[in-house]
Each structure stands twice: as structure tokens, then as C-alpha cells.
Amino acid sequence: MSMQGKVAVVAAGGSGIGRMTALGLAERGARVAVIDLDKAAAEAVAAEIGGQASAHVADCGVVSELKRVVAEISSLVDHVDILFNNVGMPNPHGIMDITEEQWQRSVDVNLKSGFFLTQLLLPLIRKSGRGGSIVFTSSAAGLVASYTTPLYSLTKAGVIGLAKALAVHLAPEGIRVNAVCPGPVRTPMLAGFMQKDTAFTDEVADLYASRVPLGRVADAREIAEAVIFLASDAASYITGVPFPVDGGYVAQ
Ligand SMILES: NC(=O)c1ccc[n+]([C@@H]2O[C@H](COP(=O)([O-])OP(=O)(O)OC[C@H]3O[C@@H](n4cnc5c(N)ncnc54)[C@H](O)[C@@H]3O)[C@@H](O)[C@H]2O)c1
């Protein structure tokens, strides 16, 4: 899965799945632009990659910030081959506890971010003249009900609908669009799905692992490898697919 000569944009690339994907794309030869809300995290990943990697700070749930960041990226590269729309946030509340503000923020971060980043980057993707690949991060919770959060299932199911619609819309241009659907992954976010205020611990991992047929939570690299496959020419006939990487979770 060589990425030599490719330009990739990784949104929420400062930690977890995004960080491992940015590193994996760069290892295979891609030039990577890392976007994250957390400036230090984005800069750390770009520094870890070195070379021409760049760091960009934005709250991707805010369209004006996306416009600024796309202008920054446009000043550095003349085209984009790969876009990883990985921004997302958990919401640990049940139906009776979700406020309008929480609803709006989840929709902005989980849905609006990827929609508008795609819209804004499409001119640069089209400029490559050789198609492209867009990967969204949905979730197993976008395919089946989440134990803890209807709002997360709602937004992550929306991501799959968006990926399918874009796949059909962009297929004539050779731009493929897919959505990876991770099960539980060992990242700082995992504990955020739980209602009590808790940090990531082995206890949290064990709780999730007990619901996964493979009997463990994923390492972020295992999700990143699937994203890199979908982004690569090895997946040249795959588009419009929700792609579970979940240890068998949705097969149950
Ligand atoms: N960890 C899991 O179990 C799991 C499972 C399924 C899906 N996901 C999805 O995977 C994606 C990545 O999550 P992760 O587990 O790697 O989390 P993580 O906590 O390791 O990293 C999330 C990154 O996103 C950044 N971020 C948060 N809000 C942002 C915003 N508004 N704009 C820009 N950047 C922002 C954070 O600063 C952080 O660097 C998310 O979309 C998440 O919903 C995670």
C-alpha cells in the first residue's frame, strides 16, 4: 500500500486513530497535513513525522475554522489525494438527559465537520486529476444500537449515509468514499462513552472487551491499517462501504 507521492489530510490527527493513520500514511511515503483542535497534539504528530508534514489547528465543528485551515493547506500543496474525516466526540447520555446544546454540538462535530471539510477540500482533490479517496470515521455504533448513547448512534449512522451519498455522487470522478466503523479502541476517547466521569483504565477496556467476540479492544493501529487500506489503490474498487473493524462486534 505505497503512498509515495500522495498528499493526505488527516482531521483529528493529533491522537488515537487519527495519529496512527497520519504516521502510517507518512511511513508509506505520503505528505501529511494534520488538523486537530489541540495545537500541541497536532504539532507533536507533525514533528514526529518530520519532513514536509504540517500541523493545523481548528475546531472542525465550526465552518469558519475549516475555511481558514483549508486556506492554510492550499497555500502548502497544489492538490490532495486522501482525506481522512476522523473528527468525532462521544456523548455518554441517555435519551432523557440530552440537552439541545449537546445535540447541536454532537451534530456539528460528528456530522457537520466531515461534510464541510469535504466540500471545502473537493477543489484540491479534483486538482490531482487522478481521483482520490475519502475515508470517514463512523463507528460500530453507527451500524447497531449503542449501549450508552443514542446521540452517538444517530450521528455515526449519519456519517455512513453521507459516505454512501458522496460515493455515488463522486464515483464518476474516480473519487472513492468509505466509512470505517471501529468497535471499541484503546484511546483516550473510550472512557468518554461511559456515564460516570472516568479515565481510561484496564477496567474500562475489560468491560468493552467482554462485548467483543475477539475478546479485546482494538489498538488504534489496527483501525489505522484499515483506513490506510481503504485510502490506498489496493481498495480501488471499494466505494460507498461501511467497513466494520470491530473484532466481530456487529456480527453478533
Ligand atoms: N475510541 C473508540 O472506541 C472509538 C470507537 C468508534 C469510533 N471512534 C471514533 O474515532 C474517531 C477518533 O477517536 P479516537 O478514539 O482516536 O479519539 P482520541 O481521543 O484519541 O482522539 C480524538 C482527537 O480528536 C480531536 N478533536 C476532538 N474534537 C475536535 C474538533 N472539534 N475538531 C478537531 N479535532 C478535534 C482531539 O483533540 C483528539 O486529538 C472519532 O470520530 C470517534 O468517534 C472511536
From TrEMBL:
Keywords linked to the UniProt accession: Oxidoreductase
One term of GO molecular function: oxidoreductase activity
Species of provenance: Acrocarpospora macrocephala
SUPFAM superfamilies membership: NAD(P)-binding Rossmann-fold domains
InterPro entries linked to this entry: NAD(P)-bd_dom_sf (IPR036291), SDR (IPR050259), SDR_fam (IPR002347)
Name of this chain's protein: Short-chain dehydrogenase
Family: Belongs to the short-chain dehydrogenases/reductases (SDR) family.
